[in-house]
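Incident log entry.

Two folding requests arrived from the same account within the same minute. Monitoring flagged them as a possible duplicate submission, but the sequences differ. Recording both here for audit purposes.

Request one:
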Amino acid sequence: MNLAKHIEARLRFAVAIFIMATAETCLRAQVVELSGGTSTLYQSQGGTVTVHGKGYSAAAGAGMINGQFYSGAQFVKSTERASFILGTDTIPFDLPTDVFEGGHYLTAVGLGMRTKVDSAGVYTFVGETSTNFNSPFFAGTKAETPAAILFATGKVAPQWTASTRIIISPLVTIIHSFAYDSEDGVKFAISGGVGSGQLYLASSLAITHPLYDLKAAYIESGGKFRRANVAVPLTAEPDRDNVLLTIRPAKWMSLSAGRQNYLTPVYQSPNNVRSSVNQASGNLEVAGFGLSAMIFQSTYNNTGNVATAYSAGRAIGSRVHAQATYLTSKSDNSQKTDSLITNLQETLTPRWSISQMVNTSDGHNTFGFGGSFLSNFATLSADYQTYYVPARIDAPFEEALIVNAQIHLFGRLTLNGGTFVGPDGRLLYTTEAEGTVSREVGATSGALEHHVIGGMVIRGRVLDSSGQPVMGAALLIDQLPVYTDSRGYFYVRERKPHEHPLTVLVDQFLGGGLYRVVSAPSEVKSNTSDQAETVILVERITSARR
């Protein structure tokens, strides 16, 4: 048995013994969560059992991914000064120079600790980095490479923050960063070092102003750069020059233009593929009409495409909204294509709405119908949406029926499901069921909510760049996976106020698609329920929804 397999066997044995040793405590636990589902996006089926007790949580999950069986387990013990992790851990790996996207992370199996030294947050871990077999229903892992990890972040001056990210493994990662925040809308950051043995240098500038927003970054890295030497998750990295400028010269007008370059890793290969997207758009509100125009010029794997989208919409009375969208596309290797899509939406009652769609393309008409229903028991919606898929050069626009459903059954059982367009343009689905069972231990009737669940709450909402709620957004609050409801909200309760690291898992949204984080705090803190909520902004980057 080689060293890596020996370490993996020892770690798995330690996890099993530790969880068995706490079995009695778990049996007396007061909150048990059960969840499971199936998804064609992740090619997975499985589930997880999570137990919450006083000062600890334990989780075990298993299922099938691409026909193979995987499993994972974790035990977390929290004290006033630190959190101790045994088993599988998801480790956030964002840098302050990530102004265009976030959600970077890696998975490891072993022993870890999160604590604070003076005012600095410190994370240490020893074990093995792991391939994360992508499933929103359970943590499927496969320990691969021995590693020691040290992440630290702290203030060095009132407006300056320093951070370091170190992974000692056969391919070393050492990246140091400094960030400046003027607190009046100007942020500047630099990062530098090596990632998986490859040079990495980055600088960024972000300015928020009532009249304009500016994001700019320049990244220089080796052609095989990766933040960590893991096969999965594979996350596209910004590369070279990246800029996005949005101008709002008037309340009824906004203009934006930008360029972005990416290094996209190739699965089971050390190589990356370079791609780029140039875009420009304008939005107007004139005489009750909403007008917009967008142009994309993308290059992927040495093949280019130019696509445009024009849209006009207007409210007719208080219940009807009409909209028309004209799309064109021309790639290097195909003829130009165009489509005209008209849509009519009508609100029948506060709970019911319907929609009708006509798509005219190449002289052929396609008709579609949709609608939505909202109640305490169920939230249902079905409507046609148009997506821009840069990786599909010859025909990047995809018209698809998007269905989302959330049903609350007896007790605390909730069913979630939806369809979406995958990165390759295929229509896929995800379904999930989750439920909670509570037990009273040594408490009188009526004391469960206060003594078991706790009076402190972490409350927040995930919105897209147009201000619409994102259902099924995947978040990691410390070690607790959380998904947003149909209105984009998430809630976590605990006994005492604590700060927890927050990671937005952009590649595990139940609604599918490819997102980037526009704005999200690195930490969230629980408070009394009347405190302001945390707002997280994300942007879908594979769609041109109209």
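Request two (distinct sequence, not a duplicate):
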Amino acid sequence: MCGIAGVFGFQEKLSCDRSTLQNMIDMLNHRGPDGQGLYLDEKVALAHARLSIIDIEGGSQPIHNENKTVWTVFNGEIFNYIELRKDLIARGHHFYTHTDSEVIVHLYEEYGEDFVARLNGQFAIAIWDIACEKFILLRDRVGILPLFYTSRHGQLLFASEVKALLVALPDTPALNPAALEQLMTFWAAVSPATMFKDIFELSPGHMLVAHRGSISSYRYWDWCFPLPNEYRRGSESQLRDELLDLLIDATKIRLRADVPVGAYLSGGLDSSTLVSLIHHFSDAPLRTFSLAFASKSFDEREHQQQMIEKINADNSHLLCRDQDIAEHFEDSIWHSESPILRTAPVPMKLLSNLVRAKGYKVVLTGEGADEVLGGYDIFKESKLRQFWAKQPASVARPTLLKRLYPYLDVSPGRAQRYLQNFFGVSLEQPDTAFFSHLPRWSTTAKCKNFFSGPFKEQLQGNAEKVLAEHLSANLKSWHHFNRAQYVEVKTLMAGYLLCSQGDRMLMANSVEGRFPFLDHRVIEFANQLDPNIKMKVLNEKYLLKQAVKDYVPKSIIQRHKQPYRAPDIDAFFSGNTPDFVHEMLSKERLDRYGYFDSKKVALLLAKIKAGHAIGFKDNMAFIGMLSTQVWHSKIYRELFRQFLEII
């Protein structure tokens, strides 16, 4: 992966000079430290920071077609570029490189805007069609690669990260209050909104077209599910074999590179499946990287070791301590460009640093398997809540939920009341689009209790309504399990897991992540399945387990799913609390920034210091407030200080 940036004069003559373009791409040097390329004409300025992975010698960008009428800068990988290249040569196109980037300009020549349907990859692409005076931005189907844009005075500015836009703008953009409210509910702002007013992300599966003085965008791909009587037919063994074949091919084409490729190994089913497929179905040397924690409640080394021994992997592991999270927290927020509600991204940044230190630029990860194939506890939870909703007065039915979370410390006397209060949210409306996620959102939204009075006055309190406006019109016609999957991928996965915890923590150390489970062919196959074969009763990812049972140890297939987590409050208070925590959560700093009520924050800090802060609510509130304060400080103060020094 790389970094791209640029400006298009869609209404006026280009006002971006070479110096401004250089400043923009310099902000993305961590995404592409292997070289830079610029292109400017009267209408467009394109810049590229390169992480060289394919055609190392000849793949520099910007890339053009034969007569230089179509130009592109591109961040990502086109995994089926070899097959596309052969077809395009047969159709008369001439290539001057061996990179996957050049496929884009020729494919666009051949098929116009419909070319994207032929891409299998992860990408953020800018195309300048000189002959038609058309400028195009597009982003991959599920949102693996980021792409941001804004318009000012007839100029369209775009970049892989917001910080590259900020150095080209004449003034500091204001905070988008609605985005922070949404983040404190869904863990991320509702796409296309960002934390910055009037700066937008191009939503996953969307294409933006600037042509003849106007800008428009449309969705070219989306997650789609059949009606309940239209699921894909076939025996369990047939569907199992088809899934396995798709995963094998999705993995093999993601090993294409002119540099060594590694893989993350967590010890769970998804990463174990991935490394097993590499081991059994490719000739690639198996180099794996694992994350370990000093705290046993987060550590998975026992399960990682089972896979390492089974496939004889060459593994490196990183031991993450509480103080490591605290030490690297601020820098992680700088790279994420967004507040976060858990510290989980920080260890992922440390792990990508290990990958790079060992000489690797590319890793495959198991991200996406839970969303695509039905693996999360929230899907089990939704099933049980649907069952409970049929008899809301039942005493026995809600107790089934305790089986999902046996570690919950709830006394028998309080259990019924707790389960009713937490999981009984909107139990009387099980057919609502967001039924599956309301308990989680209700808990997360308690972070908003810490907002200051003046900040609350800026909010409209319609986060769920805004989200609904950006989802498929067919959502309510799908099975409740599929509705839960769709809401999950449109909120937590796209907005947080693939961004704050994924791309940003990888590219902070110039490492590219690849995601076989998010191959669109795998997604489209899985979406057609009956939900009962994805999760059989409460056995998550049932079909995946059947598909890989000959390749993954039985103990890993049968183990209770352990979500990836990292220490939150404990990371900052188990030893010496870092100075920046005291500074950012001081009354002076809280009142100056204005987001949070300093008195309420002081009460939470007192609770933490007394050792009484427990549970998700306190952890999310603390990390959410600390990260918001750091975000404001890093983006508004440090970034513009750096920029002023540049100019």
